[in-house]
Amino acid sequence: MDLPESVSRLVGDKPYYEETIGMSDAKIRMYPDMVLKIEPDGEKAARHAEILRWVHGKLPVPAMLVCESVAGTQYLLMERVQGDAACCPYYMEHPVLQAKLLAEALQMLWQTDISDCPVQRTTDVLLSEAAKRVEQFAVDTSDPEIFGQDGFYSPLKLLHWLEANRPEPEPVFSHGDFCLPNILLTGDAISGMIDLGDAGIGDKWYDISMVLRSLSWNYNGRFGGPVYSGLDPDLLFDALGIAPDWDKIRYFELLDAL
To answer: Is the same domain home to 145 and 199?
Structure first.
């Protein structure tokens, strides 16, 4: 693949591998000290670059080195944040430490001043995007717990329910994809947060619902890894110092399904 000169000048002939973890359609090249994200030029790609510029210096996120669009493709070159994902074996085997660090990462997000944040990822925005996917028949209906016999009859039915049952908003700076692979840790400290393409002003319970789902999936071996013991959502809420609001958690799980 030919890279823009601005990118190739920095990466040169450094070795790399392609990261395949995750559900994004983007191509990710992992260099020893840099990460190159290649994806179609569009609203989400532009939003990722915009939020990285805004959040740099506020949170431990990758520094953006180059962002260039060529022939409908965006090339986003970032510094590589070092550390182990929160789903690596060490943290999966130490659930108390894992919960403590995940809670610290959430609190870092929530303490970020959003008064001049340029990106809105509110519930209304997410519902608007969900409505477009429903109209385009682009919703995955394979989850039997949501669209099965005891669930919603169709994505449209679910969309109508979500629109009618919006929870009272609790706006914070939201990561937007707060799952274990996107939180990097070193020892007992947070070394970085990555993959902020869906970050912006959002609801605090959206990120909580995403990390609880990610914990469940990783502890249960959903991605082909080992099954771990020690999954206890109360560890996270104890570390956060708040009580769980299971209605809001379920709401945002359902919204994410669209």
So the answer is: yes
